[in-house]
Automatic annotation (TrEMBL):
Classification lineage: Bacteria, Pseudomonadati, Pseudomonadota, Alphaproteobacteria, Hyphomicrobiales
Source organism superkingdom: Bacteria
Organism for this UniProt entry: Gellertiella hungarica
Compositionally skewed regions (Basic residues) per UniProt: 162-173
Basic and acidic residues: compositionally biased ranges: 42-52
Identification of the protein by name: Uncharacterized protein
Length: 205
């Protein structure tokens, strides 16, 4: 091998070595950038998820002060007063206001109250509008609807007494209905039957 050939061989070997080093550095840089981008995307995704969960929480738990004044068709009442007149809990009224707006929430509520007042239910020999049955057992009309959705017959729903909360060990052994929770109107749907009168025969003694 002549000196010139030897020199060319050395140059080629050095070039290959430098190329391998450059290639390795390029791959390492690309991998580092890929990991940085993955971490950045992960952070952005986590922030977006947190923001979504916060918005969802606010939507599920809207706030409306009980003493907020709301005027509907010339009548002004506090929010909790409107809720009571519509046979709703304050929380249910707030959810309706958030979904439909105060005026539409009140209008829809009044329609349901009117429907309940026209629906006569006869149970155990007594005939009353649905809202009077609800008042007698200490729950709302929506509470009766919810009982029916949970599997009660209509007669059971309008006559079963309201379950009491076990607030202390002193009354834990009292005979209360154990499979019913405290019932309040939720405003969700309607189980009222579209008939003017519903009759049950008295239970056999």
């Amino acid at each position: 091998m002549t000196p010139a050939e030897r020199a060319r061989q050395i140059d080629e070997e050095e070039f290959r070595h430098e190329s391998d080093q450059l290639r390795a550095r390029a791959f390492a840089y690309a991998e580092a950038r890929r990991k940085e981008e993955a971490e950045r995307f992960k952070h952005i995704r986590a922030e977006a998820d947190r923001s979504y969960q916060n918005r969802k929480r606010k939507a599920e738990n809207p706030t409306l002060p009980r003493d907020r004044l709301i005027t509907f068709e010339g009548v002004t009442k506090q929010a909790h007063e409107w809720a009571k007149s519509l046979d709703l809990s304050h929380a249910s009224f707030v959810r309706r206001c958030t979904k439909f707006g105060p005026e539409e929430a009140i209008r829809l509520g009044q329609r349901k109250v009117e429907h309940a007042s026209r629906t006569l239910v006869t149970a155990n020999g007594e005939r009353k509008p649905l809202h009077e049955w609800a008042k007698q057992i200490g729950i709302t009309v929506s509470g009766i609807h919810r009982r029916i959705r949970r599997g009660m017959t209509l007669e059971e729903a309008v006559t079963a007494p309201r379950a009491r909360r076990k607030s202390s060990s002193r009354n834990r052994n009292r005979g209360v209905v154990s499979n019913l929770s405290d019932l309040h109107g939720t405003g969700g749907g309607s189980a009222a039957q579209e008939i003017s009168e519903i009759t049950f025969s008295e239970r056999a003694k």
